[in-house]
């Protein structure tokens, strides 16, 4: 408060007219940190998930973030509240939801449309297996206790429901021994959709029928004899040596290895891979009686005794049902290179004659993290031409084309290698390395995107095998797709290879405009590929200045022009002018005046001049009309420290403010109304360049400190406010503690100074240092007076600062510290308004030189960290809401509806001609694979899900107690959730209406009649079993056709009428029971009174 009052006094006495400034008009409610743009893959990426319908890829990290990547520059970032790695990540396919499981056993469901968590809960035990049933909202969960549970996500209520279905190994009657935790769960897409494969750590495999509540296949016994097969070359046919007995083996990976999901591939910790044939699913006793050695085959990638564990197994089917590609990570000898092995396997004559007809080893670009196929993961059949995404550390994503892999295996070249297609960021940050960047806001409504030059379109990288990038999901914002729109914001980045990229940053989807390679046709410019060190853009003329480490300064005109193009090459001793062909060239001039790296570039407000600050400490002012130097500082004056910051400010003639004429460097006359250049050097000196002369009487700080930046802050001027006489006299009589001694003398001469430097004297100079903020009056800086008006000391080292505006006036200061903390302070009183950190906003740790690529304009910050680029919005209000309104949607509802309709059409309807073709065209590349003919072809996913809903809604082993309930328990974070009393649904209530009685003779006659009709129907057969009573849901799932909205509404209306009728019947029965209970109670009371009056011997 003392500093604030002191500042008010300084402002009031600073000018000759009274100033009324609203200090600290920036409030905490005005600040809202939101990362609305995020590009790139975090270096901590560890796990992948893919939605084959929406064509989205999700990448989980070790610090609790999820990156979602679609097509056309659509990317999003989800941040969990817990900074824990993810154990599992999977889409609820085509349902706008993503499920994650963290190491803390937190299950989170993410809404991709709102980019937020829809539901979250923590499981009571350690989850060791997690699987989503494809195309549904059901989730299998296996835990460390060997128990299998089922969850369902209710999208309407946004809750996870724990279903009553729950099995354990001993309850299922598999074995009384402890087989350890469940390490894998795979849903089998059989015709009824009611089987699940459960793998235990000890090696036990159980194929469980959830409807019959029994095991239909059990494998992995210690006494099982098997055949051993080895794959040491690409062309070797697997042989059958002497059988060996299988000891206890620990499972580490598994997948289905056939189109009909009858063959299971299981990887083990010792490096073995076993193939199990589960098609002979039978009872446990039948399996023990038969020899299963012909149905189990062992495969080894290396003959070495010590091998790496099998970490990943994934299967991509080919056109034949018993032929496909097996992707394997692990299984090779210890100490081998990072390889992903792909085997082409075939067993048309049976699993006992398994053959490897091709092998390819893909050398990875880094240490392996995860991989996933682009086919329908977990879908029957899937895509026969699936590509594979491979994630390596740190945060590198490569795509390997199916055709290239297949061709390599057919070449039989042993361990062949292939180069994958690397994920190409919209804005490259590491390849090439970004060295400097600038975010610039353009005047509203003055620049169309078609007005800019089309210098060099984005470079197209050759793709191996004509590979198409498979990620096409998401829907861009409404205005992002407009070809002709006003550009409001540009993002310009310079790179280590000398190139410069210009992007349209108006909307949340960045789009590349052009790439400048800094090469001029027919003109030889030395060192044209030096790293870019500085950038600046004049928003009034759209002139771009680019400086590099060799001292060169390039001037580009980004506006299209029909005038004759000319190029100026200016050196310290020569000025050449070259005529260039008017094609796409827009480089107007190159200045090579000093052989020192360019530190700062700054255009004057009208674009007529450009100031260049060098690392050697010199400053050049260039004329942008004639492309000639106007001023060059003299290094002999002692200004040899690198230039840190520069600021242009408009003013009148301020020459009379200098203490003596000897402080001027030259006697060149100065234009009265001109701009003054303030220059800050690394040794914490401030000097002023006015026109063509420089003040040698600079401001020197008393205490040496490392400067970061400098700002000249203008103060809002208003008419003198009326004050009470006492108050006015008090302020006049109060001495000004921070004012320079000669300021009081100057205030006595209003006639002399009233017209000298009108605007600039009503301002302050703010110096941002590593350890403090120091505020000076502009007059004192010009006169070399180092008395501060306000000073704020930092508790930690600051590394970057920037100012932002509110209502066209500078109101706030942004500070970034080396700890990653962020502060927002109001201007000019430097009061703290809000605090945050890179960790809380983006989960970023501070890294050295992060400030080199940071830029801010109008409350937006752009920053780079490794391979990530993020834009942060600081201010709340209309502008921020407008940005969030045009965020791209990560879920395509139109595609979802088309795909859902295509999947739910029965197979006999799919044979009709044009329907499938139309839906396939709408679905943007969505392909439905051919499922193996393993059952009733009329079954569709909808009926399967209805069956599962009915099965999972009750326990597989019902409690004989009449109080047992089959209802669902809603999971919450409260540990006492299971103790809550379940709620009954009206549909679960059966009303025992009186059944009309019939005579015995009529009943017998009816039975005879029914028997006669049955015999007629089955041609006199008498061994026909009784028909099974089906539920309403089963009948509807079997015979109901695909319904439109009107039929669904009619069904809902009928359902409501049925419920209303049932409620009325319940009310009548309740009234009858209540009346009966009252009669019974009265009779009981009378009986009690009678018995009390009688003696015991009368009874």
UniProtKB/TrEMBL annotation:
It is found in: Cytoplasm. Residues 962-976 have a biased composition (Polar residues). InterPro entries: V_SNARE_CC, WD40/YVTN_repeat-like_dom_sf, WD40_repeat_dom_sf, WD40_rpt. One of its GO terms (biological process) is Golgi to plasma membrane transport. The keyword Coiled coil applies. Gene3D superfamilies: 1.20.5.110, YVTN repeat-like/Quinoprotein amine dehydrogenase (2.130.10.10). The keyword Coiled coil applies. Keywords: Coiled coil, Cytoplasm, Exocytosis. Residues 718-756, 956-1019 are annotated as: Disordered. Residues 984-993 have a biased composition (Acidic residues). One of its GO terms (cellular component) is cytoplasm. One of its GO terms (molecular function) is syntaxin binding. Transmembrane segments: none annotated. It holds the Pfam family Synaptobrevin. Residues 1034-1098 form the V-SNARE coiled-coil homology domain. Residues 718-734, 743-756, 1003-1018 have a biased composition (Basic and acidic residues). Belongs to the WD repeat L(2)GL family. This is V-SNARE coiled-coil homology domain-containing protein. The lineage of its organism: Eukaryota, Viridiplantae, Streptophyta, Embryophyta, Tracheophyta.
């Amino acid at each position: 408060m003392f500093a604030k009052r002191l500042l008010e006094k300084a402002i009031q006495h600073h000018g000759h007219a009274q100033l009324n400034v609203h200090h600290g008009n920036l409030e905490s409610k005005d600040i809202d940190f939101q990362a609305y743009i995020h590009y790139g893959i975090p270096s901590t990426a560890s796990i992948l998930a893919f939605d084959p319908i929406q064509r989205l890829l999700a990448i989980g990290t070790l610090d609790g973030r999820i990156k979602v990547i679609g097509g056309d520059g659509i990317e999003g970032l989800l941040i969990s509240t817990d900074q824990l790695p993810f154990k599992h990540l999977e889409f609820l396919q085509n349902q706008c939801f993503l499920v994650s499981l963290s190491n803390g056993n937190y299950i989170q469901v993410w809404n991709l449309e709102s980019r937020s968590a829809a539901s979250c809960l923590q499981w009571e035990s350690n989850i060791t297996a997690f699987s989503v049933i494809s195309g549904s909202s059901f989730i299998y969960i296996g835990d460390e206790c060997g128990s299998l549970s089922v969850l369902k996500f209710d999208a309407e209520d946004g809750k996870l429901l724990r279903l009553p279905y729950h099995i354990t190994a001993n309850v299922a009657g598999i074995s009384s021994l402890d087989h350890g935790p469940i390490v894998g769960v795979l849903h089998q897409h059989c015709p009824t959709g009611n089987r699940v494969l459960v793998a235990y750590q000890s090696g036990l495999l159980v194929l469980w029928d959830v409807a019959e509540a029994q095991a239909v296949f059990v494998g992995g016994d210690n006494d099982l004899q098997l055949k051993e097969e080895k794959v040491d070359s690409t062309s070797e046919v697997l042989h059958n040596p002497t059988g060996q007995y299988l000891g206890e083996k620990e499972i580490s990976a598994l997948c289905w290895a056939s189109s009909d999901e009858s063959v299971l591939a299981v990887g083990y910790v010792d490096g073995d891979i076993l193939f199990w044939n589960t098609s002979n699913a039978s009872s446990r006793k039948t399996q023990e009686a038969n020899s299963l050695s012909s149905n189990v085959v062992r495969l080894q990638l290396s003959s070495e005794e010590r091998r790496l564990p099998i970490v990943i197994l994934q299967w991509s089917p080919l056109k034949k049902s018993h032929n496909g590609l097996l992707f394997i990570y692990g299984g090779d000898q210890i100490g081998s290179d990072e390889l992903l092995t792909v085997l082409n396997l075939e067993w048309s004559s049976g699993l006992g004659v398994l053959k490897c007809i091709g092998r390819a080893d893909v050398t990875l670009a880094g240490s392996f993290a995860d991989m996933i196929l682009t086919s329908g993961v977990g879908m029957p059949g899937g895509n026969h031409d699936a590509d594979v995404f491979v994630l390596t550390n740190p945060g590198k994503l490569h795509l390997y084309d199916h055709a290239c892999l297949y061709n390599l295996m057919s070449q039989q070249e042993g361990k062949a290698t292939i180069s994958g297609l690397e994920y190409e960021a919209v804005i490259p940050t590491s390849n090439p390395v970004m060295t400097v960047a600038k975010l610039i806001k353009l005047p509203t409504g003055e620049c169309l995107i078609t007005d800019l030059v089309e210098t060099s379109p984005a470079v197209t990288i050759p793709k191996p095998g004509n590979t198409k990038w498979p990620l096409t999901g998401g829907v861009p914002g409404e205005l992002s797709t407009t070809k002709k729109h006003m550009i409001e914001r540009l993002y310009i980045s310079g790179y280590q290879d000398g190139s410069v990229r210009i992007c349209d940053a108006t909307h949340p989807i960045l789009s590349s405009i052009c790439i400048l390679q800094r090469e001029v046709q027919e003109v030889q410019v030395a060192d044209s590929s030096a790293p870019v060190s500085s950038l600046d853009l004049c928003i009034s003329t759209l002139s771009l200045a680019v400086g590099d480490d060799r001292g060169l300064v390039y001037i580009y005109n980004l506006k299209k022009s029909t005038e004759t193009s000319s190029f100026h090459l200016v050196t310290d001793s020569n000025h050449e002018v070259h005529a260039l062909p008017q094609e796409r060239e827009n480089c107007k001039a190159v200045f090579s005046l000093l052989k020192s790296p360019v530190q700062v570039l700054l255009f004057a407000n009208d674009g007529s001049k450009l100031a260049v600050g060098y690392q050697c400490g010199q400053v050049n002012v260039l004329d942008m009309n004639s492309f000639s130097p106007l001023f060059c500082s003299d290094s002999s004056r002692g200004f040899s420290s690198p230039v840190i910051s520069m600021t242009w400010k408009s003013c009148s003639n301020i020459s009379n403010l200098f203490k003596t004429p000897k402080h001027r460097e030259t006697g060149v006359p100065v234009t009265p109304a001109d701009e003054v250049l303030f220059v800050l050097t690394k040794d914490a000196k401030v000097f002023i360049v006015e026109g063509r002369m420089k003040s040698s009487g600079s401001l020197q700080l008393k205490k040496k400190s490392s400067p970061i930046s400098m700002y000249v802050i203008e103060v809002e001027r208003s008419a003198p406010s009326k004050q009470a006489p006492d108050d006015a006299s008090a302020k006049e009589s109060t001495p000004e503690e921070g004012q320079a001694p000669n300021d009081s003398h100057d205030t006595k001469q209003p006639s002399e100074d009233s017209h000298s430097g009108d605007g600039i004297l009503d301002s302050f100079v703010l110096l941002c240092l590593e350890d403090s903020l120091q505020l000076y009056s502009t007059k004192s800086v010009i006169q070399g007076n180092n008395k501060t008006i306000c000073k704020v000391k930092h508790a930690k080292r600051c590394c970057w600062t920037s100012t932002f505006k509110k209502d066209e006036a500078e109101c706030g200061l942004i500070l970034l510290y080396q700890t990653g903390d962020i502060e927002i302070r109001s201007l000019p009183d430097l009061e703290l308004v809000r605090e945050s950190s890179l960790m809380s906003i983006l989960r970023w740790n501070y890294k050295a030189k992060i400030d080199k690529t940071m830029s801010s304009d109008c409350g937006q910050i752009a920053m780079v960290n490794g391979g990530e680029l993020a834009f942060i919005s600081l201010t709340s209000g209309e502008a921020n809401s407008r940005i969030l309104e045009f965020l791209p949607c990560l879920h395509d509802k139109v595609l979802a509806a088309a795909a859902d309709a295509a999947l739910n059409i029965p197979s006999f309807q799919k044979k009709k001609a044009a329907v499938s073709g139309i839906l396939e065209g709408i679905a943007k590349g969505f392909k439905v694979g051919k499922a193996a003919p393993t059952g009733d072809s009329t079954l569709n996913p909808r009926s399967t899900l209805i069956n599962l809903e009915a099965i999972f809604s009750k326990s597989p082993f019902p409690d004989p107690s009449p109080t047992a309930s089959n209802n669902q328990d809603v999971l919450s974070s409260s540990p006492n959730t299971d103790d809550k009393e379940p709620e009954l649904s009206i549909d679960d209530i059966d009303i025992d209406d009186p059944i009309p009685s019939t005579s015995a003779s009529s009943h017998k006659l009816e039975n005879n009649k029914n028997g006669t009709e049955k015999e007629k129907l089955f041609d006199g057969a008498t061994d026909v079993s009784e028909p099974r009573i089906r539920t309403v849901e089963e009948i509807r799932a079997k015979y109901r056709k695909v319904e439109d909205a009107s039929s669904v509404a009619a069904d809902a209306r009928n359902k409501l009428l049925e419920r209303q009728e049932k409620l009325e019947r319940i009310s009548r029965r309740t009234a009858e029971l209540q009346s009966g209970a009252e009669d019974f109670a009265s009779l009981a009371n009378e009986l009690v009174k009678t018995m009390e009056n009688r003696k015991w011997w009368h009874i």
